[in-house]
Amino acid sequence: MDATSGEPKLFTPGPLTTSRTVKEAMLIDLGSREVEFTDVIAKFRRQLLDLAGVTKEAGFEAVPVQGSGTYGIEAMISSAVPAGGKLLVLVNGVYGDRMVAIAAIHGISTATVKTSDRTVPTPREVEEALAADPAITHVAVVHCETTTGILNPVTEIGRVVKNAGKTYLIDAMSSFGGIPLTFDESRADFIVSSSNKCIEGVPGFSFVLARRASLDACAGQARTMTLDLHAQWAALEKSGQFRFTPPTHVMLAFSRALDELIAEGGVAARNLRYAKNQARVAEGMRALGFHTVIKEEWQSPIITTFLDPTHPNYDFEALHDALKKRGCAIYPGKLSQGDAFRIGSVGQLFPEDIEHLLTSMEESLVELGIEMEP
Ligand SMILES: Cc1ncc(COP(=O)(O)O)c(C=O)c1O
User: Fold this and answer.
1) 142, 146, 152: which to mutate for ligand 1, most atoms within 8 A of CB?
2) Full-model pTM
3) What is the C-alpha separation between 193 and 65, in angstroms, rounded?
């Protein structure tokens, strides 16, 4: 249970449990054209670049985009891939599929490297796909595929993409701020994430981080007005203001959340907290008789997938409700084959919360009469 709100703690991949101070940062009504607000935006755009290991002076830009994470992904894809371009999408879960669907709506031609949602795409597969189809101009991959919690090898893939001279797009929605990801290492041209994931803000906007040269190449290419990444950036540069009404309260909360991330010790410290949470969740759940589906070497610290128990009394909704009553909200599964549920390890979750979840899980199994096989 969250001590501030009395609501269950969220063991989900975001929206997630935020700090009281992040929520309190929203208790101010600020005009979007007031200098107090535009200063906040300028500050967090710099902080975001810093998290990705770069600066504006070195030729990188941070562009906030109103709307949830998918809006940022759509802005990135529909602005970056030119008419006549071709996007290779590496798919091992629903968020890879979603990028293919976005491209299709905009009439962008695509190719895919499709792997099972329990395995990662390899650099060799990407190399082969690029060699087989010279028309490909851009490559997109999901960093942490939240479908299962699998972590894709974006750095190794980046090497192949750049050797082939292609533009590289990373959906780091559920990982940015919680798993180290820099432009240098990944060689990305664009990285997209959102306010309500590992930075631990509340939902309401996404942001695209970009190499300026790659962003410049987007000028005049967008297929929509609202999701024109280059125009969004140009307006912010010109006046410090958004083209359209920004979610002011959400952005104030996000700025506070970024300060709190830095105070925690930055991405490295947060990554360690999440990794400890995840390891304990997996260990405790296995001790109760549950089975994970992702190989240890590919498991992210963000979210863990567990196979549904085979006992006839098991029903996800009943387990969810029994846990919720005890102050823990878990997440349904999205596996392409087999039934499963997920437990997130991100947000304001600490060792005592994980222990509480495990105790609550044990009690809920007893309450529902679910005996786990040894
Ligand atoms: C990897 C990934 N991509 C994209 C999205 C979509 O974000 P949103 O639901 O905020 O639009 C999510 C959401 O969880 C995600 O985890």
Assistant:
1) 146
2) 0.98
3) 10
